[in-house]
# Entry
Amino acid sequence: MKRRAFLTVLTLVVAFELGSVMAYAQGIKAEIGFPFVANGKEMAAGKYTIEATTPAGPVLLTGPGDSRMLIPVITMLGRHDQDPDAEFVFDKIAGKTVPSEVWLPRKDGFLLLATKGPHEHTVVGGSNPRK
# Structure
């Protein structure tokens, strides 16, 4: 009897957690026109899907050839503008382009990289693109 109750509770917990992740899963599609480095791995230019699978990350990056990579989230970012569209922000550091922020439509953002020192931004998406 105890085992049956334990298995029932375990099944409910797993179903709840899985449901929470599935309910949160949100993504954006982006055509990234330049190569970049994510988690130390060279990524080719191409079509990518960026998904936030839970409210605190990590972010799942799916690219050409169904390549997949999880990028850890440092912290959440409060929306800083009125742009309702998705944005994928890259930092240019020492000649390399690295993903630094992901902004889902009408949601707060995810900080993927905290760059100290001077650097340039490249933004993919958004209704107010900037460099």
User: Anything to note?
Assistant: The two ends are 63 Å apart (CA to CA). The first strand starts at residue 26 and ends at 32. Residues 25-125 form one domain.
